[in-house]
Amino acid sequence: MDYDDSSDPFPTALKILIAGGFGVGKTTFTGAVSEIAPLSTEELLTTVSEGTDDLTGVENKTTTTVAMDFGRITLDPGHVLYLFGTPGQERFWFMWDELSEGALGAVVLADTRRLEDCFAAVDFFEQRGMGFIVAINEFDGGYRYEPEEVRSAIDLDPRVPVVRCDARISSSGIATLLTLVKHLLAHAPAAPSYGAHT
Amino acid sequence: MAAPHDGPWLDESAGRLVRPYTVSDGRTRPTAQMDLLTQVMATGGPVIGYQGPDHTAALGLCAAPTSVAEIAAQLKLPAVVTKVLLSDLVDCGALTLRAPDFYHNPTDRSLLEAVLDGLRRQL
Ligand SMILES: Nc1nc2c(ncn2[C@@H]2O[C@H](COP(=O)(O)OP(=O)(O)OP(=O)(O)O)[C@@H](O)[C@H]2O)c(=O)[nH]1
Ligand SMILES: [Mg+2]
């Protein structure tokens, strides 16, 4: 923004997170709505564990890679939306902090057969005050709970929308994203008027 | 420990790691501040100094504005390593970069409205 220039070739890059428990359909959802084949970036993590029973004091370094899926939707010539699937394993959740930095909001995918798997993601966004919705990804064998049943099982704020989706179908994913953005708009404060304070 | 030998330096656990670190000369700290959504684009200017094949490959992906995440995925290199390569290219004038427009201001509705309109056009 410091380089405000009418010939600015760069579109505005925005992001939405696709979160939820292990195997709930994050990669499938991201791929279904993306205009590019879902890609994955890896972060290299070096974890240093100091062996307590190690008299030499040599640190035990292990390096792991964490893959993050992402997809892209070109909204218009000036705006491009990236969707990032958050890493499912809880031990990598510190990475979410970085991913959630500056995100518009999040879709928390839930599988009604393992509803508790989405609790941690819901907690994460609630604690950070980030706008999110819950989308029930209906697997074929899944019992069809009503969204309201899911809401009370999660003990969700009544304002947070709960919708059904099929992560494999592009239009269903787009409709889910639209629900999220409408929710964010509904709760975004109006343009600052007087003495805005946080 | 196995004796050093010629040929690819691979072992079960390190195989994936050795090459990325070689590519970046063992560096994991890019000189330019970059996020996965930082966009880069080739300036078209001459590349000063020899950069190496991975730099050339990275530069080849940047004809149009492209995100760091996409370049990392295409190069099949970890994001940290990709950031080092790209910041080398920024330093030598081959690339320009643009930080992401993060949504930090909840009173800014215009970004959300642009997203809403853009998503509607996808249906
Ligand atoms: N029947 C059905 N299968 C689905 C649906 N969504 C995803 N799947 C399948 O469920 C499996 C897991 O989906 P992924 O998209 O890989 O889930 P994920 O959340 O990315 O998984 P992790 O990254 O491992 O946590 C895959 O085999 C998908 O094909 C759905 O809506 N219906
Ligand atoms: Mg996945």
From TrEMBL, chain A:
Entries under CDD domains matching the protein: Ras_like_GTPase
Keyword terms of this UniProt record: GTP-binding, Hydrolase, Nucleotide-binding
InterPro entries the UniProt entry points to: Gliding_Motility_GTPase, Gpn, P-loop_NTPase
Pfam families (UniProt xref): ATP_bind_1
PANTHER family found in the cross-reference section: ATP/GTP-BINDING PROTEIN-RELATED, GLIDING MOTILITY PROTEIN MGLA
Family of this protein: Belongs to the GPN-loop GTPase family.
Protein name: GTP-binding protein
Lineage: Bacteria, Bacillati, Actinomycetota, Actinomycetes, Kitasatosporales
